[in-house]
Specification:
The protein contains eleven helices and no strands. By secondary structure, the protein is an all-alpha fold. It folds into two domains: about 35 residues, no CATH class; about 190 residues, Lysozyme (Orthogonal Bundle). The longest helix has 25 residues.
Amino acid sequence: MFRKRIFFFIFITVILILVIGGIINIHLDLRLLALTPKILKYKPLIKKYAVKENVDARLICALIVQESGFNEKARSAVGAQGLTQLMPATAKELGVEDPLDAEQNIAGAARYLHTLYRAFPESQPDQQHRLVLASYNGGLGRVRDAQALVRYRQKASPLLWEPVRIALSQLTPRHASIHKKVWGSEEPPHGYFEGFNETLNYVKRVMHYYGRIRFYGKVLFFL
């Protein structure tokens, strides 16, 4: 009994350390585990189009967890639809006739992700994932504007996520003076980016899910 108590105490202590250290996020991890049956249901489609478009199936899966929680009929307040929450204009460009059809939706998103990865060919994979996700959520133009700010300052590489992350938060009216120096206009080429916090949180959450899916890997999701 004493040994069991010691083991339980050690186990709880380790879990608390992992939580405090940010390695485990109880809310996100429980949500991911609760979606295991749906992940397994859509796994064949995810793997099919991940292979076709040369995109990591685990990242597509993580994106869907964040976007819709694997609800293929999901609709957002701004009009995004389906598993990967494609906007109508984006879906049309990708040749997706019915965004609420799971296979068309996943195929379109995988195609779109492939295009976004090609936009950052010189970045290392870990950095590339984040730049792609920020582009998926906030728009490639916004990420390009942020990279331009990083280049202008010449203090860091625009191929790295951290300086781009900071620059995304500076695409607002509060930083109009630096915009004027970079572009000759107080407003960035793709407009002010007041929703930068949403995009930064989005990247953080999807990457957390991606890391956990990789961790659980073959044991739970067979991805």
